[in-house]
Records
---
Amino acid sequence: VLDLLGFRLKQWYQRRVRGDGIVVLGVEKRSVPKLQDERTVRKIHKLDDHVCMAFAGLTADARILVNMARVECQSYRLTVEDPVSMSYIARHIASVKQHFTQRPGLRPFGLSTLIVGFDYDGSAHLFQTDPSGTYHEWKANAIGRSGKTVREFLEKHYTDEIAASDEACIKLTVRALLEVVQSGGKNIELAVMRKGQALEILDTATVEKLVEDTEKERDAEAEAKKKAAGKS
């Protein structure tokens, strides 16, 4: 199970203001065998032009759930003639999971998901679903092996000021992942989606640069605190 975290970013000064926004997903990647194509090991999937999903758990189960969600997104678009809303697709995925917990001969889906994207009005959303079929909306959250550790870090450092800046939001994602990832940028995958733009998977060089800058800032903060403690 991998660590996943996500952010929802809106104009911070009023929750109902429709402004530009960003959603960020960070994944701790497992190292793959030397001869394996790492492109076939993906934890982040696009469901529609404005919706994507990341998961922690069984990859085979995720493949089935992703395909079901993609079909529902297109069915909704054909029926309603509008893109699927974030709350609708989150509720649909949670309902599919719950259905598999109560039918004889079936087993529950062995994964948790983070669903992020934008509604037609431009508002950004982040939903989490559990294997039991429950779902909730969050400002920032983490799932997976060390999800509790990362979530506690986010609760401590997430602020409206950070959420108002694209750059700060991405850096906080990296800082949160570095709390549990020991091997630096090579085992981190970052995905960014902005209003009206396609999902962007940041390349390895960009991620490593972000990790390097974040580690320098963290070391500088630690040194400043050490000096302040020495003076007192």
---
Amino acid sequence: MSRFGIKSLPMILGLFPSATKSADGAVSFTGATLDPKTVGGGFNYAVLDGFISQITKLSTSTNASPDADDGEDDLTNEKTQDGNDDRFHSAQVSGDIPELTAKNFNDLCGKAKICAITILDGNDNENREQHLNIVKEVRQKKSPSPFQFSWVDGTCQLDLLTALDISPTDLPTMITLVPSSIRFARLIGRFDVNNLGFFLGGIMGGKTGTKALPNLPNLNDIDCVAFHQSQLNPVAEEDDIMAQIIAEEKARLEEEEKRREQEDDDEDGGSKKK
């Protein structure tokens, strides 16, 4: 296992033979591993399918000739409408990672751009800054790059998760999306600097497989802060209802106790008259 860098089990290992052989004619192998302990939400079809797709793409690109066409769009092969390739000049390289919304989608994720969209759990405010700082570090390391970085509240934009076959338990994660070709790729594994860098490097090098979407995912025009607040209100209302029920029950019991005491007093009074 040490030969393949495996330090713990269980582990999924994807291997394929290299195109070149050693001096003694032995075949060498290349591949990647997927640790289930680092996958948000555990194993599911989307995670395994994405990993297999990446291994397949890596095998094809490694063993193919430089001019070979695998029939799959290269996410980095995007040009502007006037035919000029300015991929490495438009992406933001400093400042905060902007939140992607229905209103700014065209500006941040236009047809001539590759969008690197971080999808976060909007209920996890405590770790949001940490996750966005990870993305900032990756953005800086990859600069200059064709990627336009942004983030979206996945637990608020549930239609987006559904379109991408991502579960809320898979968050945080990242996808790359090219609206002009309606193709995307999804991060597999741990959400950290190294794995994000490997993921985006695979996109830039054409080694990460991409998938076509039937149509471009839509973001709902919704105030996510208000949305999350509305999810908390029902809990508060239920607490109020429960408190009212408890108060009414307490009043009923007190009234019942007073009635019994009155009946006892009446009985005592009748006995004395006799």
---
Amino acid sequence: MAASAMAFAPASTSKASTAIEAAPDRLWNQMVEKSERSASVPYLPRAKGLDGTLPGDYGFDPFFLSSIPKNFAGFLQPPSWEETEGIDTLYWMREAEVKHSRVAMMAVSGWIAVDLGARFPLAGEPFDGVPSSYLAHDIMVGNGIFGFMLLAVGVVEVCSGAALVQVSKGEIERDAGDFKFGSKYLPKDEKAILLMKTKEINNGRLAMLAFSGIATQTALGQEAFPYWGF
């Protein structure tokens, strides 16, 4: 009877525990700080890169996208060309966020200004005849104006890409989105500089949401400012 019972008894756990201890480190452990909580989503661990040092860093990354280990330098030039230090995910995402924030702030201001009647002085047709910002896209495409705009945007993208190539090579020290444009107007105090950069990114995030809302409301029929109806 005792022998039969022993046949069903669990084997020694020493081998199992040894196997657990020898298990490879999960990628998850490299992406998060498990001992710290996210400042904005406190039931989640903090994403490793979001340590509060970046302007506007509130720890919001519920999908931990900023911690994905990836070298984005390959998007700028093939890795086979030359060895580079690379560009990590957080830097690449912050570069994109700052750029989209600045574009959105200009877009919201321009959209509203046109809908309130503002036009470039002496611009003439077809600009003076644009009835609203929502219809401006199709009118400009029909007149071939967007070809020049595409060229201008392409020049800007090439210049910004060149700066990122220098960063990936380690040739320059550069904060994401910093093109030294207007840097002489920044305060001299480091805390004041951080405050100004935080204001920029916060207003940029708001502008991205605002542009999405304005475009959606206009497409749904509310073309006049302030783009809602009752």
